[in-house]
Amino acid sequence: MGERTYLGMERRDFIKTGLITTVAPTLLLANIETIKRARNPIVISTWNHGVKANEEAMKVLFSKGSALDAVEAGVKISEADPNIQSVGLGGRPDKDGHVTLDACIMDSKGNAGSVAYLMDIKHPVSVARKVMELTNHVMLVGQGAKSFAITHGFKEENLLTEESRTAWLKWKKKLGKKDDLGPNDDHDTISLLAQDSVGNLAGACTTSGLAYKIPGRVGDSPIIGAGLYVDNEIGAAGATGRGEEVIKTTGSFLVVELMRQGYTPQDACREALGRIIRRHGGNPGFQVAYIALREDGEIGAAAIRKGFKYALSSGNKNKLHSVKGIIN
Ligand code: SD4
User: Fold this and answer.
1) Does position 4 have pLDDT exceeding 50, yes or no?
2) What is the pTM of this model?
3) Is 189 a catalytic residue?
């Protein structure tokens, strides 16, 4: 934050010196803007499969593509992978055996698009982007989202793989009479945040949600401010884990707002989780994790419980990092 203020002052002072009169004003301003924002591309994403997603996102950034193109390309890798059972194709179904997908995307200008409860379309993130770019809405759900997708050329396909179907049938057999919501708490929703070489930020989040959820349930992932938030002046944040808790605390927006107040990305993630932990008497029995990317390239990641991993790419490095849980 200090840096940004400093650079802002520097720019004003520079203009005040009168140097602006010696160079074409628009050219000068454009150069200052570039100097102010030039960054090394960086990508951070949730879970193990984030490594492959980051790789794809970095390809876009290294060829001078935008952060927006990078986040979409990155998470599409996870959406298309049938072995990732919490995202896109092969995602675990709801209680009735339907794979229903939630996703959202945000760009550096604060534009946002989102889809929820979308069925039979493999790349919900791309549908979300179309909502953002082609309509004046933010969110489409269910049949409306599907019709919109088909109108815009997306192919209808069965997303329930044999493996996911077998696991669902096994789960159903074990379901007790009294069990209503029986989501198993495995997670690998992908939230991916990127900064491009001109310093712009973008983010995307995509999931099949909690496994075996009640039909109609939508989590945090497609909710702007919950599963994802991007503010180009401050930073970006994304979530994974028990979506209801993220929604109730407006998690990703909170992380960004804490960064605005001067929290480091790491402390912002921890404090946002602290709000959830305190609401649950200090020991919630579920997982929530946040990742954050500040506009100067500094990152943060934190989780309530052990087991969370994030993938970080910058320069030629693309590595998976383990996070210690706050409470275990
Ligand atoms: C949800 N947050 O639907 C998602 C689930 C998740 O990794 O993150 N899984 O609540």
Assistant:
1) no
2) 0.88
3) yes
